[in-house]
Amino acid sequence: MTTTFYAPPDRIRDGMIDLPGDETRHAVRVLRMRPGDALVVVDGVGGWYEAELVDASKSRAVARVIRTRREVGESPFEITLALALLKQRNRFETALEKAVELGVRRFVPLVTARTEKGGLKRSRAESILIAAMKQSGRSRLMDLSEPVTFDAALRLDADLKLVAHEQADPASSLVRVLAGPAYPERVLLMIGPEGGFTGEEVTRARSAGGRVVSLGPRRLRAETAALAAASALMLWGDAAPTSVSASAST
Q1: 117: Cα separation from own chain's centroid
Q2: pLDDT band at 237 (very low <50, low <70, confident <90, very high)
Q3: Can you list the domains of the chain with their CATH numbers?
Q4: pLDDT of 81
Q5: Cα distance between residue 98 and residue 77, in whole Å
Q6: Cα separation, 81 vs 106, whole angstroms
Q7: What is d(CA 12, CA 19) in angstroms, rounded to the nearest whole number?
Q8: Among 1, 116, 243, 246, which residue has the fewest nearby CB atoms (within 10 Å)?
Q9: How would you classify the pairing of strands 61-70 and 47-56?
């Protein structure tokens, strides 16, 4: 299997790719790659490059582009996942990593009435995003926003706003909502903290046009709920009619 590397757009020009320092070290010192070896490079903004290594030293690795593709591994829909900050950072980081694997385009840390004190180290989070993008075969780096309030999240642009709640009517299950005839291009999925959203927050969500949905009869941890719902959205989006997928990705 060809190894995938990351290089931002400013390191790709005139058909040549200059790998960043950490990617160079991985290619040359860890994998012991040599000129002539094949590799794949993604630029984080939708570019996917099949390439051949032409220069490999301890300080620099340069590859020549052989073939270029766009939007490899990307969902035809822009999925924004707004997950409440969790008290245990490792659980939040797991959700962050898996959201990348599931095709989420944007991840929004959410501050709600029941959010407990938590945090996210930006530098560590960015490393997680890059590693997950390469591992999952995506070509876009998931956008990670700064934490926002519940009401600010409701104001985000989306054609369909889904608010998961444990007391939602079973008839409003996520699967039934997605079974409708419409294929919106932008979906916002909001998941509450360990204690869930308050009744007042649910009321405000409905007033803002949100669809309050059920994720089933089982009690799920916040990160599990986020990944279960994101998985459903990924499969739903990947099954979209070709004409819809084409219009959503342009």
Answers
A1: 24
A2: confident
A3: 4-70 (2.40.240.20), 78-248 (3.40.1280.10)
A4: 98
A5: 17
A6: 6
A7: 9
A8: 1
A9: antiparallel
User: pLDDT, tens digit, for every residue of 194-215?
Assistant: 889 999 999 999 999 999 999 9
Cα separation, 187 vs 185, whole angstroms: 7
The C-alpha angle 168, 169, 172, rounded to 5 degrees, equals 95
Residues forming a β-bridge with 20: none
What's this model's pTM, rounded to 2 decimal places?
A: 0.90
Contacts for 28 with CB less than 8 Å, ≥ 6 apart: 56, 57, 58, 61
- CA distances for 55 relative to 61, 65, 167, angstroms: 5, 13, 59
Answer whether 150's CB lies under 8 Å from 204's CB: yes
pLDDT band at 116 (very low <50, low <70, confident <90, very high): confident
CB 72 within 8 A of CB 138: yes
Q: How far apart are CA 195 and CA 140, in angstroms?
A: 33
pLDDT at 162 over 80: yes
At residue 1, what is the residue type?
M
Task: Report phi then psi at 137, rounded to 5.
Answer: 80, 20
Give the strand pairing for 47-56 and 106-111.
unpaired
Query: Do 15 and 65 meet the contact criterion of CB atoms below 8 Å apart?
Result: yes
Q: What is the pLDDT of residue 120?
A: 81
Q: Residue 152: CB partners within 8 Å, gap ≥ 6?
A: none
Residues 80, 161 contacting (CB under 8 angstroms): no
Query: How many beta carbons lie within 10 A of that of residue 55, not counting itself?
Result: 13
